[in-house]
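Hi there, hope your week has been kind to you so far. Would you mind checking whether the tokens look sensible for this chain? I owe you a coffee for this, so here goes:
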Amino acid sequence: MTAYKTPLGTTPFHLVYGKACHLPVELEYKAAWAVKLLNFDILPAYEKRSMQLHELEEIRHLAYDNSRIYKERSKAYHDKRIIPRSFAPNDQVLLFNSRLRLFPGKLKSRWSGPFTIKEIRPHGAIVLLNTKGEEFVVNGQRVKPYLADTRVEKGEPVTFSNPPHA
């Protein structure tokens, strides 16, 4: 409640009450005659309270502006890191298998495929064809390009060359 929030530029307590939060240990008590003197004059108390309310409104407007600026910066940061993907019909893609949660294994790939793109629909939907010729629709965010030239069948030996020595 009293922690400084970066998007707001202030603490939530300061937004609600217009002053800093003082814990009971931090309070300093004034003499009783000084408190009575401050509370008897109604006009100065009214002026002081109205000034506090105006300051509170100003603090809330500043917090709103700070929050808007923070959101704009966060959006710009996110948008800068988005990699645009463009697909065309007959492209080969891999499909992310989000249901592979139960004992997936450390080295088991969560990408299945390759699949062939049959059609690209509006709003990011893509119609895929599997090897049996069956069609299904997926979200475009769940696919990535398939870049392999050759396909290795299960059980086929793969030979690797020795790395060059530096």
Summary: The chain has two domains: 12-80, 92-145.
